[in-house]
Amino acid sequence: MTETTPRAGTVRLSDRQPVVSGPEMLAGLVPPPQFDEATFESYRADPAYPSQEAAKTQLMRFAGRGGPAKRGGLFRRAPKEPDLKPGVYLDGGFGVGKTHLLAAIYHAMPARHKYFGSFIEYTALVGALGYKNTVDLLRGTDLLCIDEFELDDPGDTMVMTRLLGELVASGTRLAATSNTPPNALGEGRFAAQDFLREIHAMSDSFQTLRIDGVDFRQRAIDGHAVVLDDDGYAQRVEAAATAGTASDDSFDDLIRHLARVHPSRYIRLIDGIDLVGLRAVRELTDQSEALRFVAFVDRVYDAQIPIAATGRGLDVVFSEEMLAGGYRKKYLRAISRLNALTHSA
To answer: What distance in Å separates the CA atoms of residue 192 and residue 51, rounded to the nearest whole number?
Structure first.
């Protein structure tokens, strides 16, 4: 497919130059639309994995939704509940409902000042406003929810540990999700030994809850992303453009453009898009390109925008070398999301 002129109802993401101010970024720190109604009651724990129900019970207590305290008998003291740490940390695989539970905490906790964002959104906020301004802005926050806690470089490690430390000291409560326990963040990615003190100090603020299970995104679909031929792709993009707005970019054009747009602006990059179209997908072998694409996929998934693609299957877009490296879990999470998004197109 060699068409280069966008049709009516189509746009090129690679032509967009989004701008997001600090206050707009802060106002956008709320759960993704698909979790607007997420509650503890709507979380469907898999009975085959008791850790899911156990985690939900613990999180309800953290959010102030636990059951009544057990009373002792006439001469017995009621059993003392363990003290709650200022933060809870949900560690588990992909698609076991961690983000749903994180959003349930956000909705259930009676707090006036609370924020919900991905790890990259918080680091982007620091980048846009500066560290001191971010601390001043977030100080007094009752609850800070951090989805997909990832430490991709030493700078992020230092910024986030300092930021969270200052907020906890001022009374902020934390809730986070990740695929890596907090005392193992950074393993295999950089010289984590240089930052052990900071990482361990951060992990002391969290009670870690392990959630086991099967990726719900893979329960109803096969194991491969959908790949369209040129005609099928053109028909899918045209149908989406007729009903709303579809993007239509070559994969290489998008990858080059992502290098020119800060990840904090990716959410605005896909604003108003009903279908993301990618032509001639190829394998990614450059780590920087791959990590930017992962950040882009996260935003597309949060917005629940279907993807139509030609070329290489998006489930095999990351090289084997990458999948064997320190970012393996991040790439596998992206593959899981890409599979789901191509099946929804």
So the answer is: 29
Q: Quick check: 114 and 145 in contact, CB under 8 A?
A: yes
Helical segments of the chain, H only: 22-27, 50-62, 98-108, 119-129, 131-138, 154-169, 196-203, 230-243, 251-258, 266-269, 287-302, 320-323, 328-343
CB atoms within 10 A of CB 133: 13
Query: What is the distance between the alpha carbons of residues 345 and 343, in angstroms, rounded to a whole number?
Result: 6
Mean pLDDT, range 304-309, rounded to an integer: 96
Angle (CA) 264-325-301 rounded to 5° is 35
* Beta carbons of 130 and 170 less than 8 angstroms apart: no
87-92 and 173-178 beta bridge pairing: parallel
Interval 177-191: pLDDT, tens: 886 545 554 444 433
Beta bridge partners of 11: 247
Return d(Cα 185, Cα 158) in angstroms, integer.
12
Give the pLDDT confidence of 228-270 residue by residue, as tens digits. Answer: 999 999 999 999 999 999 999 999 999 999 999 988 789 889 9
Burial 66-78 (b: 16+ CB within 10 A, else e): eeeeeeeeeeeee
The DSSP letter of residue 245 is: -
Provide the token pair at 91.
């560690």
pLDDT tens column, 209-220: 889 887 655 544
Average pLDDT over residues 289-312: 94
DSSP-derived 3-state class of residue 146: strand
Between CA 18 and CA 269 the distance in angstroms is: 6
Distance CA 86, CA 201 (A): 13
What does the DSSP 8-state code read for residue 221? Answer: S
Cβ 104 vs Cβ 63: under 8 Å? yes
Q: What is the pLDDT of residue 91?
A: 85
Please state the φ and ψ torsions of residue 148, each to the nearest 5 degrees. Answer: 55, 60
Q: Indicate yes or no: pTM above 0.85.
A: no
